[in-house]
């Protein structure tokens, strides 16, 4: 995928101007955590014709950070887990069946990031830096396309089939050593010309599907299972990461954070850039209660995603290389300590 970087460039330049007056970060540890929830519920008993159907759904986002600064050393750690379930309708999946309509997974994404920096020159803006990122799912996902569409957190039909994904299958990790430029406390521009990336699928049955970015070979069978596969795809390339976080308006009621990661694999299709862009917007309703919006944009040249097609059954039409967009709206309780 060939992406123009002009839009992100101008965005971060604009944010740089807005952040010029940011306060200096105090030394020592700063920690904080928040949990966001959304709940949707609708119950109808003996509904009118065309009135709709029952709905029960909930989502959550757990967001935490631990940041350290002392003299010329900095260490930033962040954790984000987004998860959601929903059930549409009630009763059984089909006439004569004893299987109740189950809950479906709507989102499951676990992220961890850690970056250590050492200031090259006292009072300077440039740091030697080591950067680690981790991305996976926490809960297994099952699919039954021949029986009932959707993504489920258990084999509720007792078919004995393997999950489509689970924790560490897949997982994507990067480790990079490079330079980090911090013109203000709100902005970080990190670049590593030699960065390692690993796509890990720690399950034989899941790796044999060949849908998570691991390399496969041979002719797949009728179920789409490949006879030969690798469980780890090791890459070497370059990583650029741009981060911004600042508060605006009266009493800093609005907080905007953005992290854009760009990776190119020297070993395979280096002209196609992998993109991981995380954005958060929070509006303070009270001191600890926030109205939060998360928007993530993702593209990996090695990973095939479900292609959205609203004219196709269940809104998807096969697998392919596409940009993936995720949006989640929550009411969040957050504290800093």
From TrEMBL:
InterPro entries: DUF3078. The keyword Signal applies. Residues 1-19 form the signal peptide. Keywords: Signal. This is DUF3078 domain-containing protein. It comes from Neolewinella xylanilytica.
């Amino acid at each position: 995928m060939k992406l123009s970087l002009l839009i992100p460039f101008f965005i971060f330049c604009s944010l740089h101007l807005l952040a010029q007056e940011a306060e200096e970060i105090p030394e020592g540890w700063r920690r904080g955590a928040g949990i966001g929830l959304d709940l949707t519920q609708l119950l109808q008993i003996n509904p009118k014709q065309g009135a709709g159907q029952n709905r029960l759904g909930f989502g959550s986002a757990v967001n935490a950070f631990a940041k350290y600064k002392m003299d010329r050393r900095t260490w930033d750690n962040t954790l984000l887990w987004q998860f959601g379930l929903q059930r549409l309708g009630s009763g059984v999946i089909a006439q004569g069946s004893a299987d109740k309509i189950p809950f479906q997974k709507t989102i499951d994404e676990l992220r961890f990031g850690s970056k250590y920096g050492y200031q090259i020159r006292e009072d300077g803006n440039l740091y030697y830096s080591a950067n680690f990122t981790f991305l996976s799912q926490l809960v297994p996902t099952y699919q039954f396309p021949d029986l009932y569409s959707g993504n489920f957190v258990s084999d509720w039909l007792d078919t004995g089939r393997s999950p489509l994904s689970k924790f560490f299958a897949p997982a994507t990790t990067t480790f990079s050593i490079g330079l980090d430029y911090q013109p203000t406390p709100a902005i970080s521009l990190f670049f590593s010309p030699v960065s390692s990336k690993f796509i890990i699928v720690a399950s034989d049955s899941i790796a044999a599907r060949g849908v998570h970015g691991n390399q496969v070979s041979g002719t797949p069978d009728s179920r789409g299972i490949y006879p030969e596969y690798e469980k780890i795809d090791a890459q070497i390339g370059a990583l650029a990461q741009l981060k911004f976080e600042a508060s605006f308006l009266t009493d800093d009621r609005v907080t905007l954070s953005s992290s854009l990661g760009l990776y190119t694999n020297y070993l395979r299709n280096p002209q196609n850039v992998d993109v991981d862009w995380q954005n958060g917007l929070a509006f303070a309703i009270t001191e600890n209660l926030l109205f939060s919006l998360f928007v993530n944009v993702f593209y990996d040249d090695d990973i095939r995603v479900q292609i959205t097609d609203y004219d196709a059954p269940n809104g998807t039409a096969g697998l392919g290389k596409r940009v993936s967009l995720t949006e989640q709206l929550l009411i969040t309780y957050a504290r800093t300590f």
